[in-house]
Design a protein that fits this description.
Radius of gyration: 26 Å
Low-confidence stretches: 395-412
Distance between the termini: 83 Å
Number of domains: 3
CATH topology of the largest domain: Rossmann fold
Largest sheet: 9 strands, mixed
CATH class of the largest domain: Alpha Beta
CATH architecture of the largest domain: 3-Layer(aba) Sandwich
Shape: elongated
């Protein structure tokens, strides 16, 4: 008879502990209602250890002293997700079913050794994760976008749509906004780019931040917005609130999905229309992805200058093409020429972000929209980052850019030099 492998022993022990915990919880429901109480937690742990000792399984725990704590956390808390959320260097958590958990650190994806017992246990964790949001996700409504208590964005998709079991993707955000000083120091962008963009924000230019998934669009939008004057009234509109502006006079609006009767939905477009009646100096939309794009362009063209948004695109030119497509999705029958005129009058600057081959987030291009020629939008590159990390500086082509820079490398300062 073959001896049990360490993996089999671990699995049997895991099952045994799970059964014990559920049995104890059935006798002590107060544990479920007060999962943060350390005294109750310790009492529960001691009872489990006693049961393991009676069953002759306590010696197996010597190689994994945190086994009971982690298993308890999975049943009455949020399992290994808790430790991953607390890790300062992790930016993304990806759970592909109960047995596969990946993380992103420094732009690189790594598989962890953490696991859940099974998909049923993972579903219970999902319920606890989103309990504060008063949202539901189940087989009848198997997709959900919301945020955690700490502000992290979470996306959930369940079977039958996911064939891997429950899939969770958590995007963590910094507690504080990146400053331009930090971004220049980290070589995210150059000093002249930082001065230029700061100047454009203060001059109330309308800016679109474009890039692929995970390129840092929201974080950079936060950094850009930090240069808005404290005296201005700012309204932010998002699907899941992620922006964290430092100014005091900020009104944060968040969309609402439809309820179980498929009614009551409040979209970004609805919020944008309402925001125009709230006397905003600036409107910041977390991301343009649908019919609200036309309303945003109209708002930018009717006195709400200095507004900003993000957009998924592969370049600054692609960003403009995508804006055209999104406007067509609004259901308003406009000729392409009229759409392009709206874009050329509304958008002043397009900033493009990407990840390099090492996964590092970088700003690679800044372009101005100059108008329309021969039925096409005309853009002028202001800054371009070359493959060798050098910058092509065309800032002298911008009539609005008043900063002058020497060729010497100097630390970026908060205020644009005159």
């Amino acid at each position: 008879m073959k001896s049990e492998t360490s993996e089999t022993i671990q699995k049997n022990l895991r099952t045994f502990v799970h059964e014990n915990i559920h049995e104890i919880l059935s006798r002590h429901p107060e544990f479920k209602n007060d999962t943060e109480n350390k005294k109750l937690f310790l009492s529960l742990k001691n009872e489990i250890e006693l049961n393991l000792k009676k069953a002759g399984k306590l010696d197996v725990l010597s190689k994994n002293k945190d086994f009971i704590e982690s298993t308890l956390e999975e049943i009455i808390g949020i399992g290994p997700i808790k430790k991953l959320l607390q890790h300062p260097d992790i930016t993304e958590i990806m759970i592909n079913g109960a047995l596969d958990i990946y993380i992103e650190i420094d732009g690189k994806i790594k598989k962890t050794s953490y696991q859940f017992l099974d998909n049923s246990s993972l579903k219970n964790v999902i319920t606890r994760l989103i309990s504060h949001s008063h949202r539901r996700v189940d087989e009848s409504s198997p997709m959900l976008d919301t945020r955690l208590i700490d502000g992290s964005r979470i996306n959930i998709i369940l079977p039958p749509l996911s064939l891997n079991g429950p899939v969770i993707t958590i995007r963590k955000f910094r507690k504080s906004t990146f400053s331009f000083v930090e971004l220049v120091t980290a070589n995210f962008m150059s000093e002249p780019v930082a001065h230029y963009l700061q100047s454009m924000v203060k001059k109330h230019k309308n800016i679109i931040v474009a890039g692929g998934t995970g390129s840092g669009k929201t974080s950079f939008l936060n950094a850009l917005s930090s240069h808005i004057d404290e005296k201005e009234r700012i309204i932010t509109i998002e699907d899941a609130a992620e922006l964290n502006l430092p100014q005091q006079h900020v009104i944060r609006l968040e969309t609402r999905p439809s309820n179980t009767e498929h009614s009551g939905e409040i979209s970004i477009r609805d919020l944008l229309k309402n925001a125009l009646r709230m006397r905003p100096n600036r409107i910041i939309i977390g991301e343009c992805r649908s019919s609200e794009t036309l309303d945003m362009l109209l708002a930018m063209n009717t006195g709400h200058e200095g507004s900003m948004s993000t957009l998924h695109a592969n370049s600054t030119r692609d960003a403009l093409s995508r804006l055209e497509t999104l406007v067509l999705m609004s259901g308003v029958d406009l000729p392409l020429r009229a759409i392009r005129e709206q874009i050329s009058r509304a958008i002043d600057i397009v900033v493009f972000l990407k990840r390099d081959q090492q996964g590092k987030r970088i700003l690679t291009q800044v372009a101005e929209i100059k108008g329309i020629e021969a039925e096409h939008l005309v853009t002028q590159d202001i800054f371009i980052r070359k493959a060798d990390e050098a910058w092509e500086n065309h800032s002298f082509l911008s009539q609005d850019y008043q900063c002058k820079h020497s060729k010497e490398t100097k630390p970026y300062k908060q205020d644009c030099p005159q």
